[in-house]
């Protein structure tokens, strides 16, 4: 029976319109319940029920199929799980070492103006690209004393933190987000597709531009943020009187004891080593160093053929070893504290790993069992749907799902496999821009969602009331999204041009629209 089940899983069954039911159920339940895990589980079970009925597997087959598929997906992505666990350990160790604390003390002494405080906060957020949780916890802790001194409201500090968390991670090839996205793509293509999609990830790129602009222009705010800044400048009141810090549970990283001996280099060196080791590992797994191999000495070919999961896991493991010899001989922490921090870091990644596992499984239900992608692709083909609208529609759909669920990663798991199947069938030249649109829309929805982990952690790190952070950030996120939508529409129209030229034109138009909005908005909605 076991062999029969696995054979069916490998072959898949065409169930027609029923194939779209599992993602629809997951999305609808997320909207109603606001519980991502519950919604994904029921979406998976609904797919297993449809598959078992179509395949004649009986009642027991529903649960056997679910467990077999989940186990298979975990096995396929074991290296990704290992990388995320090692990354969590590194984040905990860097937090414990006190490098961020040392940077904050240096910044308090050196930063003299409001503009410098805002810009430094934005740049620090861009530097910490390996994980969004680490970004939220570190930037808030480090920069709050600096921004408080220069009367930057806690609402604006929350925005700086949130806007340099997910948007930076989603365009960093060496990050937990890159690992997650790569795991949803066809085997062997994940990292390559992720890297190719970076230039067209309009929301991430434009958000980073906007955050740096806002850092350089202290009085350029508008909407609720302008009122918060006016209150801070005129009264020195950095948050509302009734504001209280929202707690995000008992976070292991936030509760770590910080070393007093840490230096700024204790924050910077592990990040540098992680980048270097990860790049070398990618080249190793891509055959760059293999004598007589097809990719020997071929940098581009090696990155294209690499195995992202094992390479990133090896890079993180090597960095962990080097970090041991950076921290312990200098007595920044004891041997016992070092391994205690590793345990805390792994625990901090458990919620993300649960969502990832469920997202991999529902992705497998749609892709492997019910053939949802080919069905939707055939539907698009036969309906004469204008393919030029696919990128902008996927941006909006991804934003809607991510807003409802509060998670970008869950949205990736539902949409990326379907998107790739649609594009490869209908318009292969739109594959990269549409994948970029899905990632961009997912981050946009995540930014606006009041139930997003990063939204909650950003307000917590800035000591800002959560609802105030959401209210002040949404107009800024909407501004960027408004510039992205025409960009993806133009990108779809120009899809028959070379990808490089399409990217340059699309990105240039979107940036111009963003700056036009940033020039007009303060005059219309308060600011200068």
In short:
With 528 residues, the protein is mostly helical. It contains 25 helices and no strands. Helix content is 75%, strand content 0%.
List the helices and strands and how they pair.
Layout: H1 2-11, H2 21-33, H3 36-55, H4 58-76, H5 78-97, H6 99-110, H7 114-127, H8 132-149, H9 154-163, H10 166-169, H11 176-184, H12 190-197, H13 202-216, H14 224-235, H15 265-285, H16 299-305, H17 308-327, H18 335-369, H19 372-382, H20 390-405, H21 408-426, H22 431-448, H23 453-461, H24 466-493, H25 499-525
Helix pairs in contact: 2-3, 3-4, 3-18, 4-18, 5-11, 5-17, 5-18, 6-8, 7-8, 7-9, 7-13, 8-9, 8-23, 9-23, 9-24, 11-12, 11-21, 12-22, 13-24, 15-16, 15-17, 18-21, 19-21, 20-21, 20-22, 20-24, 21-22, 22-24, 23-24, 24-25
How does this model look, in words?
The protein has helices spanning 2-11, 21-33, 36-55, 58-76, 78-97, 99-110, 114-127, 132-149, 154-163, 166-169, 176-184, 190-197, 202-216, 224-235, 265-285, 299-305, 308-327, 335-369, 372-382, 390-405, 408-426, 431-448, 453-461, 466-493, 499-525. With 528 residues, the protein is an all-alpha fold. Helix 20 runs antiparallel to helix 21. It is globular and about 70 Å long. The N and C termini lie far apart (71 Å). Mean pLDDT is 80; it is low at 1-10 and 243-250.
